[in-house]
């Protein structure tokens, strides 16, 4: 519009400049035609010529408009009908997206009456969506199939068929639709992802890697995401090849580490493959490199036990070497503590384990402290203390994917088949509460509440003293004992009475020794004397 206005202004300015130029140069124009002499000024002659040209143009426009008027009228009404059809189509698509089945059905019928389906494929889309929200699944699939046969709407139809097959659980049909779409249009993210997962689930690792390369070229995936997925596929392939072809497994695992340097499963497979070749140096190097990026307990265990003939002291040295790469990491301290326990260096084991408990308390570290306590002191009270804290501690990290917990890494999620779904993290079994400012952590509280070590003394004396202190023996008061002793000294009892008294005393002693319950020793404070008379008829329950 602006260009037309500018052209019009330029034409007016040109005419004005031309007339001004003629006005500055006056002259006469004489025309002799059929014996008649016509004289006029030059300006009047130019004006007359311009008027004649304009009149001819106007007459030509009127004649052409009259000649084309039937076609113009038809085109006007056709455009009006098309506009109404597109308005109905737009309203119907909005209604279908909002779930208004009645309005969508109404607008679909109106749009089909105003527009031709072979010229506007969106009518089939509206009808398919309307059929879906009305529950007419067969009609919807028929329309999606009709769209899949049309080159213009093939991708949309295949996606609709794929979603319907997935909803019905027809996974083989869904796989075929996804692969067809991926072959015709590898740039479709949904088709590429679904096909990649299907090929991975069937163990077709080479086909999956080839498809991933096509997606990378088509810019369907980001470079970092494509590199990560390729590393996962190579690692899965290497795990399958480890037993039958260790060399190929090694090569694939090393390639995987080039694409994802912190992929722990790839490093473990590469180390195992190198050990099959007795190449300890390269196995150690692979594990060290991944340990520097991502400390993992499986990497630590594999590194410490690379040589099967190493002594406990040698394993401790290798653990301390790992700690040198990550000095303040809990996994570094844990592997040193475990190796020190194997060498009976309880001081170092306890020091490292307590440091981990302060930094990152977990079930694993408290169980390790219980093992250290059992091996060093044998104090069952302290062992039970660590075991109780292990029950209350956060769970240890493990491989988790979509809520599924696994003790080993898997390339695919067992829940939905998603590739690279497993993460090393703490399961959502429990959520730790907020730690108030100035409050001690769980590990610090456990260390502060640790009971002292009991002094060494004979077991029989300990049991007797504990039982005598906690469970008083039944019998008369001290004054009554003295009177009875005086009477017995002045008048000795008969033999039969003495025998009866001895038997009664024996029976009393047998009753006085309470039977342990649930395997508890009689000196345990939880054992109650059944013959004891409680004051004020109050029942006292021992802690169990």
Radius of gyration: 47 Å
Strand content: under 5%
Q: Bin the helical content.
A: 55-70%
Poorly predicted ranges (pLDDT <50, ≥5 residues)? 435-439, 457-544
How do the SSEs run, as a string of H and E?
A: HEEHHHHHHHHHHHHHHHHHHEEEHHHH
Shape: elongated
Average predicted confidence as pLDDT: 79
Quantity of strands, as a count: 5
Number of H- or I-type helical stretches: 23
Can you tell me about this structure?
With 544 residues, the chain is mainly alpha-helical. Helix content is 66%, strand content 4%. The protein contains 23 helices and 5 strands. The chain has helices at residues 2-23, 42-98, 101-114, 122-134, 137-149, 154-168, 171-184, 189-201, 205-217, 223-241, 246-259, 264-276, 280-293, 297-304, 312-325, 330-342, 346-359, 363-376, 380-392, 442-448, 459-470, 478-490, 495-512; strands at 28-33, 36-41, 398-401, 404-406, 423-425. The strands form 2 sheets. A 3-stranded antiparallel beta sheet has the order 4-3-5, with no helix packed on it. Strand 3 (398-401) and strand 4 (404-406) form a beta hairpin. Helix 2 (42-98) packs antiparallel against helix 3 and helix 12 (264-276) packs antiparallel against helix 13. The longest helix is centred in the N-terminal third of the chain and has 57 residues, at 42-98. The two termini are 94 Å apart. The relative contact order is 0.03. Mean pLDDT is 79; it is low at 435-439 and 457-544.
């Amino acid at each position: 519009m602006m260009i037309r206005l500018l052209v019009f202004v330029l034409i007016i300015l040109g005419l004005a400049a031309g007339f001004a130029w003629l006005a500055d140069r006056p002259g006469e124009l004489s025309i002799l035609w059929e014996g008649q002499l016509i004289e006029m000024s030059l300006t009047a002659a130019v004006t007359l010529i311009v008027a004649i040209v304009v009149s001819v143009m106007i007459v030509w426009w009127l004649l052409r408009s009259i000649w084309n008027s039937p076609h113009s009228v038809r085109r006007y009404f056709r455009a009006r009908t098309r506009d109404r059809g597109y308005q109905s189509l737009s309203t119907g698509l909005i209604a279908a997206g909002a779930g208004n089945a009645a309005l969508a059905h109404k607008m679909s019928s109106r749009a089909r009456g105003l527009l031709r389906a072979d010229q506007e494929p969106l009518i089939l889309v509206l009808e398919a969506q309307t059929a879906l929200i009305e529950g007419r699944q067969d009609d919807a699939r028929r329309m999606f199939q009709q769209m899949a046969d049309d080159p213009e709407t093939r991708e949309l139809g295949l996606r609709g068929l794929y979603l319907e097959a997935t909803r019905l659980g027809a996974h083989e049909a869904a796989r075929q639709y996804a692969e067809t779409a991926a072959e015709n249009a590898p740039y479709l993210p949904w088709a590429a992802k679904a096909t990649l997962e299907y090929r991975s689930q069937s163990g077709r690792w080479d086909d999956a890697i080839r498809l991933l390369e096509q997606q990378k070229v088509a810019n369907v995936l980001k470079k970092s995401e494509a590199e990560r997925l390729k590393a996962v596929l190579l690692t899965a392939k290497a795990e399958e090849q480890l037993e039958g072809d260790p060399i190929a497994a090694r090569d694939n695992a090393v390639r995987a580490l080039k694409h994802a340097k912190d992929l722990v499963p790839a490093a473990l497979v590469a180390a195992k493959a190198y050990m099959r070749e007795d190449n300890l140096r390269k196995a150690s190097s692979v594990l060290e490199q991944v340990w520097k990026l991502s400390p993992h307990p499986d990497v630590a265990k594999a590194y410490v036990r690379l040589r099967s003939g190493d002594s406990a002291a040698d394993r401790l040295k290798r653990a301390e070497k790992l700690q040198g790469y990550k000095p303040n990491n809990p996994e570094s301290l844990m592997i040193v503590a475990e190796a020190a326990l194997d060498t009976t260096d309880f001081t170092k084991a306890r020091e490292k384990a307590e440091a981990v408990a302060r930094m990152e308390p977990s079930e694993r570290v408290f169980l390790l402290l219980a093992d250290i306590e059992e091996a060093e002191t044998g104090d069952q009270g302290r062992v039970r203390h660590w075991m109780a804290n292990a029950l209350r501690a956060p769970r240890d990290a493990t491989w988790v994917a979509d809520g599924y917990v696994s003790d080993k890494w898997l390339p695919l999620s067992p829940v939905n088949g998603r590739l690279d779904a497993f993460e090393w993290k703490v399961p959502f079994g429990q959520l730790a509460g907020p730690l108030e400012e100035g409050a001690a952590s769980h590990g610090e509280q456990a260390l502060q509440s640790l009971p002292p070590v009991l002094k060494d003394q004979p077991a029989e004396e300990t049991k007797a003293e504990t039982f005598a202190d906690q469970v008083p023996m039944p019998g008369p008061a001290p004054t009554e004992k003295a009177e009875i002793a005086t009477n017995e000294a002045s008048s000795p009892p008969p033999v039969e009475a003495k025998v009866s008294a001895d038997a009664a005393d024996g029976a009393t002693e047998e009753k006085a020794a309470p039977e342990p319950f649930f395997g508890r020793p009689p000196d345990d404070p939880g054992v109650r004397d059944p013959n004891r008379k409680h004051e004020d008829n109050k029942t006292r329950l021992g802690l169990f």
